[in-house]
Protein: tRNA dimethylallyltransferase
Amino acid sequence: MTKPKIICLVGPTGVGKTELSIKIAKHFNFNVISGDSMQVYKGMDIGTGKITESEMDGVRHEMIDILSPDKNFSVKEFQELVTKLIEKEYDNNNTPFIVGGTAFYIHALINDFQFNDEDEDEKLELVNYFEQFTNEALHEKVKEINEDIHINNRKRMIRVLIKNKLGQKKQHDTTSKYDALIIGLYDDREKLYERINNRVLNMIDHGLEKEVRYLFDHYKLSKTALGAIGYHEFIDYFNGDKSLETVIKDIQRDSRRYAKRQLTYLRNKLDVEWFKVGVDESDILNRIESFLKKSH
Structure:
């Protein structure tokens, strides 16, 4: 059976996906479907690195600003919503173009993971929640439930903590339901980390503290939303227990660690064709062109 084509642009946070995505979308007349689990939230703009209307440059974007930050959002909901958008693109004879974001969500979409209905929202809340902790903090939590897991085995620690809360859940890692071209952007670690550090400083300059304070004052943020890097780090600062300088360093650190985890996940779980930042963009456009012309 012929699989429908889909194109994804992935890579670690801060690597430069947004700018490239617009160039690709305008070249091929694509719409953009966001694959970011946090950019669905209204009002969470600066901290999530959400694309601005001017940056969109007339390109239609989906899955951005669709949910109030007091609502939870699960990978299952992401699957359902994006699958409908993909079908809509096919109906209009367009190739779906997904840009992001959250590596696990992209993986679940492409491989059509099957999730149990019961407790699904709570499970995904826990995934997002535990992902924000350092290995040291996770290890302390694991010891509390009398489990002996090495501090560097992050994946197993998170799995055990979730299992402790909910019990075993099934997730079927099947073969891809799409003929997927996954373009990945990467850069040297030092350059990426420097870009991430500067990106956080730029967020502060553009009013991140004010954005977070407004959200905390006007909403009871859901566990999913509160798990976003750049938001929960402010809690101790607002309580007077941490300086702004420390908050900035914490966000930079958490962002670097998240970027590292994203790269590890993408390299281990998905068939990505990697392109280094600064490569001639025509190489990427030509690769997409050949993919679109390819017969099955």
Observations:
- Residues 168-172 have pLDDT under 50 and may be disordered.
- Residues 116-170 form one domain.
- The chain has 13 helices and six strands.
- Residues 244-269 form the longest helix (26 residues).
